[in-house]
Fold each of these.
Amino acid sequence: MSVNQQAHTGPPYGQPQPGYQGYQQPVYGGQPLPGVPQSQYGAYNGPMPGYQQPVPPQGYFPSLGFPSKGSPVSLNSDTSSLAPNFIGSSRAPPTSGPPPPASGASLPSGHLAYSQFGHGDVQNGIPASAAPMQRPPASQLFLPGSAPTPVSQTSTFQQYGPPPASVQQLSNHMAGMTVGSTTASAPPPAGLGYGPPTSVPPVSGSFSATGSSLYTPYTASQGSPPTSVSQGLPLAQPPFPGQPVSTQRLSTQVPGFAPPPSSTGIGPSSYPPTTGAPRPPTMPGPPLPGQTVAGPPTSQPNHVSSPPPPTTMSGLHPGPPMSGLHGPPPPTHPPQPGYQMQQNGSFGQMRGPQPNYGGAYPGTPNYGSQPGPPPPSKRLDPDSIPSPIQVIEDDRSNRGSEPFVTGVRGQVPPLVTTNFLVKDQGNASPRYIRCTSYNIPCTSDMAKQSQVPLAAVIKPLATLPPEETLPYLVDHGESGPVRCNRCKAYMCPFMQFIEGGRRFQCCFCSCVTEVPPQYFQHLDHTGKRVDFYDRPELSLGSYEFLATVDYCKNNKFPSPPAFIFMIDVSYNAVKSGLVRLICEELKSLLDYLPREGNMEESAIRVGFVTYNKVLHFYNVKSSLAQPQMMVVSDVADMFVPLLDGFLVNVNESRTVIASLLDQIPDMFADTRETEIVFAPVIQAGLEALKAAECAGKLFIFHTSLPIAEAPGKLKNRDDKKLINTDKEKTLFQPQTSFYNNLAKDCVAQGCCVDLFLFPNQYLDVATLGVVTYQTGGSIYKYAYFQLETDQDRFLNDLRRDVQKEVGFDAVMRVRTSTGIRATDFFGAFYMSNTTDVEMAGLDCDKTITVEFKHDDKLNEDSGALLQCALLYTSCAGQRRLRIHNLSLNCCTQLADLYRNCETDTLINYLAKYAYRGVLGSPVKTVRDALINQCAQILACYRKNCASPSSAGQLILPECMKLLPVYLNCVLKSDVLQPGPEVTTDDRAYIRQLVTSMDVAETNVFFYPRLLPLNKADVDSDSLPAAIRNSEERLSKGDMYLLENGLNIFVWVGVNVQQGLIQNLFGVSSFSQISNTLSTLPVLENPFSKKVRSIVDMLQVQRSRYMKLIIVKQEDKLEMLFKHFLVEDKSLSGGASYVDFLCHMHKEIRQLLS
Ligand SMILES: [Zn+2]
């Protein structure tokens, strides 16, 4: 809230909580604060009297003094009784002591405290990280590497004006790729694509070689770039305004897409005239919240009302060589199995539309019915169209070896698939923020003309690799962070100090603010403060401020958060072994709760609830010999029957907790209860956190549709017949608004809900997930959970989820410099106004995608600035502000926009935009809108930036040459075009997952990684080079691994050598391989070890533990696997890459004609 201008006037922070004023902060008392000497924190310890833990008398009656509805009962029964009983135990309490402290127990602080006055402290190195342990606490993830990187080594740092000439050169270089053009005859220089390494800002010398060698690329492929790609020369001089930029330097031309004869094309009657002023876009921009996605513009006949005249077919035939551009001769492959001969000329020389193609673009039935002779049976060579693998490999070899230094405005970072180190010199790392374009059009008209969405994908608490420095923590004492008087932007490297340092001018709103006396510093002869390098907020792109009490709810520093574990103990959960599994795991997992810095133990308190159609609360107070259960059967008006003893410190209550976790599985072993509740469970957790006056997280383990009589009761409304109808959107909408209201209450309290689902049938993820989604939580789903096959995956997910870095009670605001503003937001959060993104919890894996729109003109000289401020409570209860700043270039030439785009980020935005669209529009409408927008993006490029001499050629901007293939993957994804095996819950689940994904996750989710295992080098740590996702790339004699972030498939060809099968599976023949394996057998041979290490390496990279599925060629499961070969036509009717590229080409040509 203090991201706002008013620190504590608005909801939800303004309201004191009646009835709880007297409740004192337990646990917190005089506890040392993390990472900094306690003396710096007078405000923390002063007003907060240490909480005296009252010692209850023996035989303490828990319901005394509490609402009378609470009835403590014997744990031997899950029916109500009125007598409080200790859990009658024939077992002795566990005698084993606490587990030995983990090796991370003495971890150094995750943050370096910046002393406000003693600058000498700043340069202190960061202590070396502890040896890795098997399950490190999440806070360890934030350890900086052992090599300190002093902030003052920024020799190239002062360049915040227009980029220097060498940088301009860089962007010109970046435009220099063409594919399949005559320039291919010139041998490509080394290091092409994104400019030679020398054009990176001069940093050599300031970065040790060892730093980068620690973080090596996955593959050792440093091979020379493919000969089919060549680099154009840098522009000798900048183009004159209005003059088209040379196409070859900016584009990829796809061979085979020849220009149509000039006399052909779509008649003017179908299309708006293109003369005169820039044509207004026919497609409105993305809708605002609540606005539905517009249908395809009627001016676009598409394929329905006016099929293109047959003569346009000739336009797609391999035309005469034009202006020296020769594509390779179209190959004459026979059609692949499964592909039919072409039925229609629209697709020219490539293989024709396949059966069901119309399903991909409903409304295109004319594809197959158009009269005319069958077209030539030539097909476009898939090798000649832009390859994701090639782009990824090129970027790795060109950009993976040098650190990415953030000191220069508007630099496009390496791709997310490239391993690189980041050096913060004034802009936030791309691990925190990635943009769709790093060069923004100066005017709204230009932006609309291009249709390129301006968006940033922000991951405020992203985990950094150990070699990179964590954001420093800055403590300005009681005065708090320095901010602009008007727009409240936080001090950052772009603020201009004036009048000898007495005032500063805001880089966002231009307002001049007095420098507070304690913050005054003299300026040097260049106008820079002399303490510039000593202050992270003046010299770095990302840093943290310690928040003052003004930034806290109710003007009180927060208590440490709590975790509440809420376990479904109905028949299904017990019978599957799930309850026992969870309880066993929690016994050890509770020792790995997130800790801050060098704290010896986590400050997080824990509580336990079990439920079926009633709720059972447990008193696990350390003074008890045995835990106590209290049953609340009145679920209509949920309350918490005990305050004291419900949320406890793990170490203090260790034996009581262990006893409870031992007994829960036995207590419910004979249950017959199948009906369960859901909303009252969340309400109970929420009430408990309210009572304890803290934020926290609920971990709910849940098996089925909540049909028991209670608030939030649901009915089974699954109906697959709604697919492809106007009512399909209802499948994604919650069936009641009850959960939206509950989510709002949860956000107000900082109650984040993580949901682990174990359904055997439909349980309405779309409704159950509402609270999770709006509170910033995570959802995990294990359909048909079986212990033997799914427990590893579940336990790994649970461990990571419990341990990971998380902030609570978070509010994020993105400020921008004058001219643009944040207008739309995508992600798991709640918004009560138009600017503040509220999250009860925000973990290190969650991203928020923010869209920007112009509200004024931008200036090329001053560029555009973003500042993301996240106010949150750390896992130790410290209130902090994390600030990320990013400066972008602005352009008056469209070519500069297209040169500085990032397609992976664009796809992240487009996918989230589309996935939200299905809530309000038929999926067909959403798909059509996506296609249309991308066609406009590419047509605008074609019209304004490409050479006019190649009118019919498909020309793609170099930075967007993968847009068609990736867009096609989004269009045929399960949410937008479900296959027959995809359930309604699957679709709702995936929709939620994607909405919080970062760019790397959407990249691999939509275009999975396919690795040939036979090519794995058993003697190296690297992964084999990936191949394209198409069946025709697979060999029957090989094995392949495919991963998409949720699943790992191992595909075995029918002709794989027996020896390899023996080595990997331990069986002697193909037929003996079991396709029910969920892990690879552990065998002592190099191939087995290598493949398992690859699997492990991939698992570590992903935020979720992927399910391993063995697929034998020609086996039933192969259909599932083929679904992920995204360059091929899909069973559900999704187009192949080749077909889609042709379709896009046609759309573009229609827009241009
Ligand atoms: Zn300002």
Amino acid sequence: MPLSINGQTRLIGFFGTTYKTSKMYAMYNAAIDALGLNCIYVPFAVDDLQKATDGIRHLGVAAIGITIPYKTDIMLFLDELDGDAARIGAVNVVVNKDGRLIGSNTDGIGALRALREQAEPKGREVVLLGAGGAARAIAFALADAGASLTILNRTVAKAQELAEAVGNGTRYGGVDALPQSCEILINTTSYGMANTPEVGQSLVPPSFLHPDMTVMDIVSNPRETRLLQDAAAIGCKVVYGYRMLLWQGVYKFELFTGVEPPIAIMEQAMESMR
Ligand SMILES: NC(=O)c1ccc[n+]([C@@H]2O[C@H](COP(=O)([O-])OP(=O)(O)OC[C@H]3O[C@@H](n4cnc5c(N)ncnc54)[C@H](OP(=O)(O)O)[C@@H]3O)[C@@H](O)[C@H]2O)c1
């Protein structure tokens, strides 16, 4: 459908340094188009985060997707955080409710939904590699889902801090302290990501993997990380990072617009971005 802008068009935007290269415009705008909503999803080049956030109120912008490096800093300038954003300590979506800016976080529920396409974490031994922003979101979601969690991180103090925040007997250690018992392994570190020295490498020795294990990597570029290649070769179930990208975006779209997301359309648009 051709783009049609009028005085009622609602603006949904994106704050993040990757605004020039993000591929999510196609996904959100395809969903907006399919539902015939009078909205458009556009990039914003943020210079001063506080002023940009004030701009959401003053320009009547409906909602904003937030990514690196603003997920934590933006919390200072919002009126309210929902429960998930508050305990995670990061925001990836801001909704403007009549001038009040409310921060939420869909990374945890998005990751859980992606994982559940292959494995149910309730009652399972889950190893989470990493203790950064994404790990925080995923750790709380896994604990809520009833997983038995071990958090391993290069900086052990961060793993300890997160394990204590999550509670529920969550264990912690360094990245080489892989436990004997692991049914689900999730890499939330940036290790193996494109444009880093570790691309094509994995933190997990293939000898640790076994065919009954489900292995998820939230790194979505490259789509097939070394960890997932090793896991697939051994016969593990694998969960790709782009599945989390899809689901965290589906939940964001619901918050952006207040309507049920057209999942198949969003999935199709994401596939066409490959
Ligand atoms: N698929 C999705 O929807 C989705 C969503 C969010 C994020 N992500 C991806 O997830 C990754 C992490 O994002 P984030 O926001 O959590 O980043 P972050 O807060 O900067 O955390 C980075 C994590 O990676 C670890 N790490 C970095 N380099 C390492 C290395 N060389 N060896 C071992 N550990 C290393 C860090 O360990 P230390 O604490 O020791 O530094 C930390 O645990 C990124 O690749 C991001 O693109 C994907």
Amino acid sequence: MSSTNLINNCINCGRSEHQVPLVNITFAEQKTWICTQCLPTLVHEPQRLVNKFKNIDTSNPPEPQV
Ligand SMILES: [Zn+2]
């Protein structure tokens, strides 16, 4: 019954869509969400989020990492 996959979380701060407005973004062919308060981080320091994208755990990763 409780599928957490239906609740989106900010990639940066981890807050859910119930707590903050989330914006859907795409980076490196991966779709994810970021909240409006973390958007400035993405704008000014995108390199800080790159590692977070690489660490995303998806149930269906596009490619296995070697
Ligand atoms: Zn955030």
Amino acid sequence: MSVNQQAHTGPPYGQPQPGYQGYQQPAYGGQSLPGVPRSQYGAYNGPMPEYQQPVPPQGSLRAPPTSGAPPPASGASHPSGHLAYSQFEHGDVQNGIPASAAPMQRPPASQPFLPGSGSTPVSQPSAFQQYGPPPASVQQLSNHMAGMTIGTATASAPPPAGLGYGPPTSVPPVSGSFSPPGSGLYTPYSATQGPPPTSVPQGLPVAQPPFPGQTVSTQRLPTQVPGFAPPPPSTGVGPSSYPPTTGAPRPPAMPGPPLPGQTLAGPPSSQPNHVTSPPPPSALAGLHPGPPMSGLHGPPPPTHPPQPGYQMQQNGSFGQVRGPQPNYGGAYPGTPNYGSPPGPPPPPKRLDPDSIPSPQLNELPPQQKPRHRIDPDAIPSPIQVIEDDRSNRGSEPFVTGARGQVPPLVTTNFLVKDQGNASPRYIRCTSYNIPCTSDMAKQSQVPLAAVIKPLATLPPEETLPYLVDHGESGPVRCNRCKAYMCPFMQFIEGGRRFQCCFCSCVTEVPPHYFQHLDHTGKRVDFYDRPELSLGSYEFLATVDYCKNNKFPSPPAFIFMIDVSYNAVKSGLVRLICEELKSLLDYLPREGNMEESAIRVGFVTYNKVLHFYNVKSSLAQPQMMVVSDVADMFVPLLDGFLVNVNESRTVITSLLDQIPEMFADTRETETVFAPVIQAGLEALKAAECAGKLFIFHTSLPIAEAPGKLKNRDDRKLINTDKEKTLFQPQTSFYNNLAKDCVAQGCCVDLFLFPNQYLDVATLGVVPYQTGGSIYKYAYFQLETDQDRFLNDLRRDVQKEVGFDAVMRVRTSTGIRATDFFGAFYMSNTTDVEMAGLDCDKTITVEFKHDDKLSEDSGALLQCALLYTSCAGQRRLRIHNLSLNCCTQLADLYRNCETDTLINYLAKYAYRGVLSSPVKTVRDALINQCAQILACYRKNCASPSSAGQLILPECMKLLPVYLNCVLKSDVLQPGPEVTTDDRAYIRQLVTSMDVAETNVFFYPRLLPLTKADVDSDSLPAAIRNSEERLSKGDIYLLENGLNIFVWVGVSVQQGLIQNLFGVSSFGQISNTLSALPVLENPFSKKVRSIVDMLQGQRSRYMKLIIVKQEDKLEMLFKHFLVEDKSLSGGASYVDFLCHMHKEIRQLLS
Ligand SMILES: [Zn+2]
């Protein structure tokens, strides 16, 4: 290899642009002809009047909903050649770039989606029900049954129309058969704004469950008396007040027997949510004894009995679903699950739990009164809630037709059918029924937020968003607010105009887009156009949406490898180079393109940077060294960014040589900012967006811009200066990030620290450019390479968009006010991301700016403008309609606690940047207490102050909130480093709801209960030490780690089968993977581990923990229902504390 030190010369590249092959959209039904030379940009200048008659789709992935769609029904009304429409005022386009005077035209042909068609999509028909009556899902029904009614709105609700998504009463049944568009058959779609009038859709269960948050029965929060009394035998006692006896049939004495026919699952339950029966008044004072722990935790340390070993649980069962949890609407033995499988339609009658007598303390046998501790089985169980949702909602697809439907939990496997609203995989909300007024919202303190994952990966059974091409005129948009055409736009005047569902402005329908309306006012091509009938779809963007009015080039990936002493010595450099040789064959490609359009480049660095020329015509790669890091530039024009296949020989040679070249390096110092600058300059010169993959090992202390000093200081913890640990130590990186975003330069950072390297500062650029950070502390080849390589492979291959701008529009009355995630904002509305991958999530908060109405509901439209991996400019649109309410009970009935926690965690994790951690924690507790107090005051029926009453949908709020409060960011244990906290803080900020759910409340599985003959997982158990048996082996995962915990008394045979050693003492706790052994137990456990790894966006680190070994402390940190070493409260204690806070608010 030739090396030349190059001076600061060299104009930016004049590298030829590789054409715009990206626009062929192969996978999307567009004509992609493999082997056909890519058309150059110029080819698109041809006339394109006939866009409505595109080539029939070929790809199956995104075939239009209409298979073999014929030409538009109203072909005559598609005047060809109508090009410019005045309403496209791009100058004001939020997501676009001001229109150029001479917009480029694009080829008609590539348009995959065929407007107008005679044949109707098979899948559409059912869709129709969206406008029908309540898809009373089974589960919902049962929920209702278990709940109570407040308010009268639903009182007149007719009996739910059967199960599932049965035909609407007011609409012709739609079973499978579907009449062609234009038939006018579908009357229900009413004129005003699309969706059904909502609010009180007669008993639309989904949207408006007839019952207020089913107040779950109350568990007792009895006085806490030191000492522990075993649960009394509970025969003949109302289940709602006693711990279950395993397997015991439902007590006959249950008051308020379920109505005939009703699928009531819970016992009198009905009150399952009242968490308690009131303790005797005299006992109330003693309810929260003990000094508040740092003012936050109420009761004294849990009075858990000493646990000699891990004795069996009271109910003696491990692994299986523990006995029914009274009062949680959980299934009692012998009681059918809520409604699943679908049973007979329940009677139209609802229960008012408050009207059902529940056993009060004074009704109980005297000997049972004294309760010495709260029975953990008597407080809301995450496991039970998750199991119930799975059994109730896992079997039916979630059809998104109706407004304001609360989706199944993220822990439930379900299929989604898009019938007009975005899938919950793209958007989840804290509530699907939002208060009409700002006052109501403030009163409840329930944050209104949406967690949006615009490029989420869908399971193979679901359809990717269709790509719609409107030719050179681009997407049809509202004249005023620029909202994109969507199912909620209302066509008027025979279809010549449409009224915007967001701002009410009336806009002309462009001639090429005109279509007749049927007698219900719906366009006859409704089902043929994704943008009229689906919640999510994409538009091909025109040149007006491109930077500098120029279509983008395909993006580039630049691999930048630290070759300082530590990196070389650990074997990391060699590992990366070896891996890249094969990984480069798996760069993201679009649809069925034969090869990726992404170009690659390589840089190595320590105190200086080395650029490599890997032009295909070279026999050997050439190195160019830039030692003047103060003013970074790219020393070579041609040959830096190349096509992998063309330059394969040279690249392979380079990757072979790099480890050798630096094998004897003595250089320990590194630079960091100049590395990013170099990548940025290279992308600028190539006039493309792209991603930098930086592999870095140490604090950049070498003399250079962005040089850092070690400022770690754990003494700052719990002081007012603690926030500085989360802040970058210089603003240099913020400015650099801004430049990167402007260029579409996304940074993914792989860190391999052996000591503090200031993640808070190094993470600024990855964070603000939409990139990712991976951290492998004390990296060791043997134990960490699998994890690193799996992460790298996934990171390189995953779907990603570049140069992205996201805007969320809302209907009048609310607006997006705050945003959380990895991005940059230069104004108050546009979320800019140099890169956005399929795992990245943005949480958006909404506030009222006016009144909302129950009739029109509220709408969200998320528009993401981005460049695909093939260089195609696109707009991805997600729409979601929500209900609005004038009754607080409706709000509480339609909340999603997992989403709420996602928002609250992100809110708190941002708060630590500017406020003392204690302030942040107190604010969280206060807000949640207010949320629950408001419910108690306004929605629950009067009851003793000694009762803790939780809304059904929020009964896990206390336990989950406690997990957030105890997390490393808000309450670090002694083993948590400053870098760990900064890392976790940034990581959580981009997490989706499923990730935050398992991160804060890990999944704990008893492996020894696994059925080796089935594919299923053993039933999860609650995260508490008292649930562990020393004779069993457990797995705990939280999205970042997998622990395998082995009890001291595990049978020798099991140990032999799983670890291949003959005794507990011989198990090595340094294993990073389970040995591959040929026996059913080993296979089963390894398949579980593999399955879990496949579900998470990062490869989890496997840690073997032996009971009573020192690593067990680390493991116990994740048993989040227990008191933590760092002072975090146990679940029981925290629940008592919340109760106290609520009572103070109410008094
Ligand atoms: Zn508008």
